[in-house]
């Protein structure tokens, strides 16, 4: 079962921010199941420079209207590095 490490925010100036939206364009929204402290949750994932990241939160204005696929509605993305358990 996969889990994830420390969470942190990325802003539009971070290359990972653009990578998240490029991954959605190429593959669609890819999700995976994670075990965090005994709770199972399905989170979007994307890859950046060979490392997989889970999206654990958004700072947005009406981002839910586009299902979090519109970069102009998202101010920050909270990500965490995916760890294999």
Shape: globular
Structural class: alpha+beta
**Percentage of residues in helical conformation:** 10-25%
Percent of residues in beta strands?
A: over 45%
Strand count, sense and closure of the main sheet?
Answer: 5 strands, antiparallel
- Given as residue ranges, the uncertain stretches (5+ residues, pLDDT < 50) are none
Radius of gyration: 12 Å
Strand order of the largest sheet: 1-5-4-3-2
Gap between N and C termini: 6 Å
**Total number of helical segments?**
1
Secondary-structure element pattern, one letter each: EHEEEE
Total number of β-strand segments? 5
The overall pLDDT average reads 89
Structural write-up:
- With 85 residues, this protein is of the alpha+beta class.
- The chain has one helix and five strands.
- A five-stranded antiparallel β-sheet has the order 1-5-4-3-2.
- The model has no long low-confidence stretch (mean pLDDT 89).
Descriptors:
85 residues; alpha+beta
Quick structural gist:
This protein has 85 residues and is of the alpha+beta class. The protein contains 1 helix and 5 strands.
Helix/strand layout:
Layout: E1 2-10, H1 15-27, E2 31-36, E3 39-48, E4 51-60, E5 74-84
Antiparallel strand pairs: 1-5, 2-3, 3-4, 4-5
